[in-house]
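Quick note —
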Amino acid sequence: ALVAALGGAVLHLLRVPLAWMIGAMLATALLAWHRPVAMPAWARPAGLVFLGLALGATFSGPVLAAVTGALPVLLLGGLLSMVAGLAVVPLFTRFAGTDKRTAFFCAIPGGIVVMAMLAQEARASVATVTLAQTLRVLVVVLAFPPLMGWLAPHGEYGGAFSAAREAFSWPGLLAMAAAGLLAAWPLRRLGLANPWMLGPCAVAVALGAGGNLPSGVPVPLVDAAQVAMGASLGTRLTRSFLLASRRLAVVSALSAAALSVLLTLVAVPVALLSGLPVAAMILGLAPGGMLEMSLTAQALELAVPLVLAFHLLRTVLCNLLAGPLHRLVLR
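Predicted structure written out below.
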């Protein structure tokens, strides 16, 4: 944990967006390359609870109405992301040597857990899909925050997707955390991916939309949660994990880069035609994780609720449509 925090602090001093998460991830990965490392089992869920509250607190009644009004574009973005994923399936099939079934679940930009579960149901290689999806998220996390920090200065867009920050209160924050844990429990029992974030996020959105948010989430607590998440990602990057299939790792990184470019080229015209902020649209369609891209938007003050809604809806669409789409593609 100390090494992870030091890594985050270094990048924070260098003013890198999402510094605490990226720095913690790189520092932990460097340590994991040479020796076994582990984080306490409670660190990731605890970090997710407070990050979920922080992201949910960016909503208010008007913001929720604005996001709801953008629902057609959100649906289009989710569908376009899945279609773009199909474009890189041949890359996996040809250069990584995977079968078409496995290549499909490697290429579609869904959540790591979601795509691994769907791959298992479709009798594809779960280990291959997990490795490819993990490396996709890592490539996007390392590339998008600094690039967006350079291209889109802090607070470039506020407007309808920006809510005033609530003052911090320990009793209010602890009450929200307790309610968030209660909301996460049934989601976990149902087998949903990321319940520790989604439950608290839903609680904060409901309270914020009703104008009853009892507390904001202080920045140091968000930074500490980022360190926990970054360290959890870094512990996966062991020598054996990265060298298990060098060919697959290289193809996964290249496909993530290709998918990022393709979705960025899609995001710009969609944003211009819909009137939504271009930077937020790029982050919303980016093939990274929901948490990482939402936190990047928060760090840069770029319409966080809109970015979060894009990724949340894409996760739902992947759950509902990836299986039928896979069967259709095989036919």
